């Protein structure tokens, strides 16, 4: 007797979320975009924690199209 168990996997996530580093959702679906936990002090590169009315959430700081993401040499310009 065979049991045909089929797991539904619409999308297989293998790349960690750029915002929180967790595998399992897209960057735009990150819960951090709605609310950042209190114990979290920093988010992924290209994102920043924004405090609005006492609540913190992550916002994308990248204004360039995703296609140009590989050309991120600008962070070498460390102005100090
Ligand atoms: Zn995330």
Automatic annotation (TrEMBL):
SUPFAM superfamilies found in the cross-reference section: Retrovirus zinc finger-like domains
The entry's keywords: Metal-binding, Zinc, Zinc-finger
PROSITE patterns: ZF_CCHC (PS50158)
InterPro entries membership: Znf_CCHC, Znf_CCHC_sf
Superkingdom, taxonomy of origin: Eukaryota
Gene Ontology molecular function: nucleic acid binding; zinc ion binding
Residues in CCHC-type domain copies: 17-31
Protein name: CCHC-type domain-containing protein
Species name: Pyrus ussuriensis x Pyrus communis
């Amino acid at each position: 007797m065979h049991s045909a168990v089929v797991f539904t996997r619409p999308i297989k996530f293998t790349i960690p979320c750029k915002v929180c580093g967790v595998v399992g959702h897209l960057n735009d679906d990150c819960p951090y975009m709605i609310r950042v936990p209190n114990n979290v002090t920093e988010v992924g590169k290209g994102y920043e924690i924004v405090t609005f009315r006492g609540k913190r959430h992550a916002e994308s700081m990248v204004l360039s199209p995703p296609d140009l993401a590989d050309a991120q040499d600008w962070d070498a310009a460390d102005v100090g």
